[in-house]
Amino acid sequence: MSTIKEKTIELIDALKATCKTYGMGNDGNEYKIITQVFLYKFLNDKFGYEVKNAKSDIAKKIRDAEKWETAYAELSDTDRMLLQSAISPDVPMLEPYHLISNLWNQQGKGDFDTIFDSTMTDIAEQNADIFSTQTTANTKIPLFEPLTQFVTDSAQRAPFARALVDKLANFSFEEAFVENYDFFSNIFEYLIKDYSRWRQVCRILYPPCYCNHYGPFACRR
């Protein structure tokens, strides 16, 4: 049976292979797709872990459910807001329509590329006040941007988005969240080894004070 580390490396390789299949192997935009999609997967699973373990009576409904995503979607707006307020502010807030499971269920739609891009950008917009990086000119760089635009053939954009989501739904990072940061330190060394721009990913996944000491070596350079 594959370990979580092996599954994670397989995921990264699969995302790279998908980019190559759709004409973006070693393309200048490949790093954007790989790092942002991987970050989306990480945040989706981290959010699920946090809502299950929140210090709230509502969290028990999520923990006991066969599918946490369904239980989360079925909460009343009031209960969902209460649950979100019990989660650490270091975790981006996700709504039910932001989750990978929701995208998975919409893959049959012809405009799936638009649905995929809109989901990513909406997450970025709703969390922009806290989770974004800034340029020296004080311009905010969001967590995510539309990614299917990088596929030259517009007819292939929806299949490309489906291929990405297919890769994300195969396993969960949840079992890794009980481990220390060394696991993700090694993984992110592997993730960013082919790219020169990696700081946005590091800053989101590793708080600055933590990153400086315990994050991926590349993040500390």
Q: What this model shows, in words?
A:
The protein has 221 residues and is mainly α. It has one domain. It is 56% helix and 3% strand. The chain is built from twelve helices and two strands. It has a two-stranded antiparallel ribbon. 33% of the residues are buried. The C terminus is likely disordered.
Task: Using brief descriptors, characterize the structure shown.
single chain, 221 residues, mainly alpha, two-stranded antiparallel sheet, 12 helices, globular, disordered C terminus
Sheet bearing the most strands, described? Answer: 2 strands, antiparallel
Mean pLDDT value = 84
Query: What fraction strand?
Result: under 5%
Integer tally of domains:
1
* Number of discrete helical segments: 12
| Largest sheet, spatial ordering of strands | 1-2
Percent of residues in helices = 55-70%
* DSSP summary, beta strand count: 2
Q: Could you say which overall geometry the principal axes of the C-alpha atoms support? A: globular
Distance between the termini: 35 Å
Uncertain segments: 206-221
Structural class: mainly alpha
The string of secondary-structure elements, in order, is HHHHHHHEEHHHHH
Rg over alpha carbons: 17 Å
